[in-house]
Amino acid sequence: MADLEAIIFDVDGTLADTERDGHRRAFNAAFADVGLDWDWTVERYGRLLGVTGGKERIRAYLRAERPEFEPPQPLDAFVKELHRRKTEHYVAMMRTGNIPLRAGVLRLLREARAAGVRLAIATTTTPENVSALLASAPEPGLLGWFEVIAAGDVVARKKPAPDIFELALRDLGLPPSACVVIEDSDNGVRSALAAGLKAVLVTVSSYTVGQDFTGAPLVVDRLGEPDAPATAVAGDLAGASYVDLHVLRALRERTFGTAAGD
Ligand code: XBP
Ligand code: MG
Fold first, then answer.
1. Which of 107, 180, 184, 248 has the fewest Cβ atoms nearer than 10 Å?
2. Ligand in nearest proximity to the CA of 186
3. CA 235, CA 218: separation in Å to the nearest integer?
4. Which of 95, 117, 144 is the last residue of a domain?
5. In order along the chain (262 residues), what is the average pLDDT of each group of 10 residues?
6. In the prediction, which pLDDT does 134 show?
7. Closest residue (by CA) to atom 7 of ligand 1?
C-alpha cells in the first residue's frame, strides 16, 4: 500500500523565517559594499519577494525602481557580483545562529528520520545558504539528513515554475503521490502543484500572510509543538493540535487515496 515516503521542504519562510532579517539585510549590506545607497526596507522587500531568486529580484528592482541606473560593468556580471557578496553576508549572518528554525521544524525532522521517511529540499535560494542555515541549527549533521537538496540555479526556471520540485522528485526517484510538500508562499504552492505534488501543507510565514494558497489542502499558521498548538487556516489537522507525521500521512492519503502510487 502506498505510504508517505518523503517530505519535500521549502527553505526560506518554511524552515526558518529568513527573509526579513536574513536575506533582506544581506542584500542591503552588499549594496553598501559597492557604494550604493539602495535601501530595501521591510515593506519594499515584501513587494520584491514576488520575484523569486536573488539575482532575478535585483534585476526586477532595477527595471521597476532604478531605470536610470548605469551599472559599472555589463549588467549580468554586475548582478552576479552583487549577489555573490550578498551570499557571503548571508552565510556570515547564519553563522551567528540568530535566525532559528521555526517552531516544530526540528521535531518533525527528527520524527521523520526516526520513521525512515526520506527528507528533501526544493528551494529557490543558493545552496550555500541552505548549508549555512542547517549548520546553525542545534542538531549536529542536520544537513546530512537531507538526501536530496535541489536549490538555486540548477534549474532554468525558478518557482512558481515546477522545475525545482520536478528535479527533487527525479532525484528521490518517487512519484508525487508518495510525497508531502511543506511550503510557505503562493509561488511555492503553485510550483509544487504544477509538478503534480498535490499534498501541500502551507505554514504561513511573516511575509506570506494573506497570500492566495488555492489548491493547497492544508494551511496552518505553524507546524506547532505540543505546548504551542498550530491553528488551521484552511483544511483540518485530522484531530491533532500540531503537525506530526500522522497529520502528514492523513494529508497525503486524503489527497491521493490509499491506492495512489501502488
Ligand atoms: C526564497 C527566494 C530566494 C531568497 C534569496 O525562495 O526566493 O530568492 O529570497 O535567496 P524559497 P538567493 O522560499 O523557495 O526558498 O538570493 O540565494 O536567491
Ligand atoms: Mg519560501
1. 107
2. 2
3. 5
4. 95
5. 89 98 98 97 97 97 96 96 98 94 98 98 98 96 98 96 98 98 98 98 97 98 96 94 97 82 43
6. 97
7. 52
* pLDDT at 151 (0 to 100): 97
Entry pTM: 0.96
The CA distance from 236 to 222, in Å, is 13
Q: Are residues 115 and 224 in the same domain?
A: yes
Cα atoms in the Cβ-side hemisphere of radius 13 Å centred on 132: 22
Number of domains in the chain: 2
For residues 121 and 229, membership in a common domain is answered with yes
Which backbone phi and psi does 205 adopt, to 5 degrees?
-115, 175
How far does residue 54's CA lie from ligand 1's centre (Å)? Answer: 6
Strand, coil or helix: 122: strand
Q: Assess if residue 49 is contained within a domain.
A: yes
- Classify strands 232-234 and 148-151 as parallel, antiparallel or unpaired: unpaired
For residue 68, how far is its CA from the centre of ligand 2 (angstroms)? 31
Measured between alpha carbons, how far is residue 135 from residues 64, 122, 139, 169, 179 in Å?
36, 17, 8, 24, 25
